[in-house]
Design goal:
Blueprint lengths: L1 E6 L3 H10 L5 E7 L3 H11 L3 E2 L2 H7 L4 E4 L11 H9 L3 E4 L7 H14 L3 E3 L7 H11 L6 E9 L10 H18 L2 E9 L9 E8 L4 E7 L9 E7 L2 E6 L4 E6 L6 E4 L10 H16 L11 H20 L3 E2 L2
Parallel strand pairs: 1-2, 1-4, 2-3, 4-5, 5-6, 7-10
Antiparallel strand pairs: 7-11, 8-9, 8-15, 9-10, 11-12, 12-13, 13-14
Helix pairs in contact: 1-8, 4-5, 5-9, 7-9
The protein binds nicotinamide-adenine-dinucleotide.
Nicotinamide-adenine-dinucleotide binds next to α1 and α4.
């Protein structure tokens, strides 16, 4: 059983809370925000004590785990401090994406979790769907064969412009994680980007990538398209077959090479995923289950190390935009 505190009670921290309240093996025990109104509102809504500093919550609430749902510059600068405090206090941490907006602090966060032998996960929620699980099984069963290429794309509207790299750093932890999830480490990136009309940031981008396994990858993403239609597409191809996941969980289709019969998984009406919020439930439930099961920190799905690896790919992409050249991922 995990006694959980939530740090950062914006829309996303409140969503984490709503996931933990009914979850088996979890007990929501406290909320913390430096914004007293936000902390008090969440505490009243959820029936748990409010704290206004992380230190006070860690001292008084008798927790085993925290969710870090702070934001900050590029949606990530405020993750470092509370994550380090919680790890220092011996708590497991499930943090929001991006792991951090800069690489050096992210490396410290991952290193401290490893040193303390604590579970550290990132809310890389897009991979926690039945469709993604099935696609992974198709790969494990040899139905894709030797990997050849991957095409990934995701587009939403986000009008915020906290820095010119906001779209790259804040949207693409998701897409790059999905690419790494299916095809492994990315070693080289070439990225070009554009500023949509009225925008001051690189709000739409296209990446070419090389995977360590030898396969090639392509990614397109945008913060310029209003919601209403599908927002994500994932395609992986190999010598034995190709799959496409439409919109994260709606449909997964396997196209076996040389066989005109395709296999289609459609999200079921009964017992299927209802909407995007369910990706949070699935991801947070998986983390709590893994911690409760005593899984080794190195085996956490969507770990801090995964979050860091994605951010290193994005740092290389930014350098590529700056230099106009392909960049090796450090
Ligand atoms: N996984 C997803 O699909 C997904 C989707 C959207 C947003 N996000 C992520 O969720 C995070 C939060 O987003 P949001 O829109 O709720 O942000 P927000 O800025 O509205 O809320 C963050 C809250 O954290 C509080 N905070 C900051 N530092 C703190 C500290 N040291 N101690 C206590 N409280 C502190 C702030 O006062 C604020 O209330 C971002 O990192 C964002 O990238 C994830």
């Amino acid at each position: 059983m995990q006694r959980i505190g939530i740090i950062g009670l914006g829309g996303i921290g409140n969503r984490h809370a709503d996931c933990y309240v009914p979850m088996q093996g979890a007990e929501l025990a406290a909320v913390c925000d430096i914004d007293r109104e936000r902390a008090d509102a969440a505490a009243a809504r959820l029936g748990v004590p409010a704290f206004y500093t992380v230190q006070d919550m860690l001292s008084d609430a008798d927790l085993t785990m925290v969710s870090v749902a702070t934001g900050g510059v590029e949606y990530g600068s405020d993750h470092y401090e509370p994550t380090m405090q919680a790890l220092e206090a011996g708590l497991h941490v499930l943090g929001e994406k991006p792991i951090c907006n800069e690489i050096a602090p992210a490396e410290e966060m991952v290193a401290l979790a490893a040193e303390k032998k604590l579970c550290y996960g990132i809310n890389l929620n897009h991979r926690f769907t039945p469709a993604a699980r099935l696609a992974k099984k198709w790969m494990d069963d040899g139905r894709i064969g030797h990997l050849l290429f991957m095409n990934m794309s995701m587009w939403i509207m986000n009008p915020r412009e906290s820095s010119e790299w906001f779209q790259i750093k804040a949207l693409h932890p998701h897409t790059v994680d999905i690419m790494r999830h299916f095809c492994g480490d990315i070693t080289e990136v070439h990225c070009i980007a554009m500023k949509a009309p009225g925008r001051a940031i690189w709000s739409t981008a296209q990446f070419n990538m090389r995977f360590a396994c030898g396969a090639v990858g392509h990614l397109t993403g945008s913060y310029d398209i209003e919601r209403g239609h599908p927002m994500e597409r994932c395609e992986v191809a190999g010598t034995a077959g190709r799959f496409v996941i439409d919109d994260m969980f709606r449909e997964a289709t396997l196209y076996p090479a040389g066989d005109p019969e395709k296999v289609v998984y459609t999200n079921p009406v009964f017992g299927g995923m209802r909407d995007f919020a369910d990706t949070f439930i699935n991801r947070l439930t998986r983390f709590v289950q893994q911690v409760n099961d005593g899984v080794s920190p190195g085996d956490i799905d969507g770990s801090g190390a995964d979050g860091l690896a994605a951010q290193k790919v994005l740092a290389a992409a930014i350098e590529s935009i700056r230099t106009g050249k392909a960049v090796t991922v450090s």
